[in-house]
Amino acid sequence: MKQYANERIAALCAYVPGEQPRDMQYIKLNTNESPFPPSPRVAERISGEEAKLNLYPDPACTELVAAAAASIGVKPENLIFTNGSDELLNFAFLAFCDAGRGIAFPDITYGLYAVLCEMYGIPYLKIPVGRDFSINPQDFCGVGRNVVIANPNAPTGLCLPVSDIEMIVRCNPGRVVIVDEAYVAFGGESCVGLVRKYDNLLVARTFSKSHSLAGARLGMGIGSPELIGYLNKVKYSFNPYSINRLTMLAGLAAFEDENYYTENCKKIITTRERVKAELRALGFSVTDSKANFLFARSDKIGGRELYEKLRRRGVLVRHFDAPGISDYNRITIGSESQMEAFLAALLEIIN
Ligand code: PMP
């Protein structure tokens, strides 16, 4: 039997990203993108003479690092930029884990973590969340391995306070704790301030959600110089130019227009709270999400059935056929008018 792939890749079930169908125009509430365009500064920057696409980009992302350091209040050696935060997660799993250094994460969380473990041959421990999807920070102490926690978690949107994250970081000396803050701008509490205190904490951030740059692919890691040094070793060995010139300019422009993004996040939060209340009034159970999505189920209709019926009406949400959450759908918060269309389709379905 011919098999070109190595055993691990041959056996791997690849991560399945949210669908991006081409057959018609959908109201896309399935991949947690921002409904708002990037700041006008982004278009100005990338169409200007700085673009210089005949030249390689700066692998150290010097200007971007300086802008981020000033904005977040850390030192340049605390920062690394990557091609989306998925790439940062890849680098971190490669750098800090192997067959002898496993990792733990909640059993309901971002699906990529388990896929990375399968791909790199990393043993992983899934720690059960509560019936209400809550994470008990004590469960992450004494696990004898690295830890990754999405905070707010996906797809539940639930958020731990910084004090709980600090406890997890403190009770795992000598192990790396990765806190994935992809959704922190929508009401969560960031633990970036802990980076100065603990050398085993890596915070992962993305420009895909709050900064309307999902299409540009920009992620950022914040950690001790020691952790960032190892991540750079991987980055330079993997693809030193993983941030292209256009993305670098888009990122710089984003730092120049922070107000624009803060205002957009406020709008998303207002819409989220309104839609949450409307869903609850319709009898849905909805988690108390601090992210740019809601996670909801109803006794009146199954998760899969609702997903399919919404899809037929031109509204895409994300349904996960996974144990414990198949009754639910994850609904990205779009613009006010997109959410009106979603609620109208939902009413039609459940009545
Ligand atoms: N972390 C979490 C929890 C996510 O949901 C996502 C989005 N799929 C990512 C990281 C990756 O985002 P990106 O690669 O676009 O930065």
Structural description of this entry:
This protein is an alpha/beta fold and 351 residues long. It has eleven helices and twelve strands. It has two domains: 7-37 and 259-350, Aspartate Aminotransferase, domain 1 (Alpha-Beta Complex); 40-257, Aspartate Aminotransferase, domain 2 (3-Layer(aba) Sandwich), CATH 3.40.640.10. Bound molecules: 4'-deoxy-4'-aminopyridoxal-5'-phosphate. Residues 84-86, 110, 150, 154, 180, 182, 206, 208, 214, 219 line the site of 4'-deoxy-4'-aminopyridoxal-5'-phosphate (PMP).
How much helicity do the residues have?
25-40%
- Gyration radius over CA: 20 Å
Q: Overall pLDDT, averaged?
A: 97
Strand content: 5-15%
The span between the termini is: 55 Å
What small molecules accompany the polymer chains? 4'-deoxy-4'-aminopyridoxal-5'-phosphate
- With strands numbered from the N-terminus, the spatial order across the biggest sheet is 2-8-7-6-5-3-4
Number of domains: 2
User: What is the CATH class designation of the largest domain?
Assistant: Alpha Beta
The chain-level structural class is alpha/beta
Largest sheet: 7 strands, mixed
Poorly predicted runs: none
Tally of DSSP helical segments: 11
CATH architecture descriptor text of the largest domain? 3-Layer(aba) Sandwich
Number of strands: 12
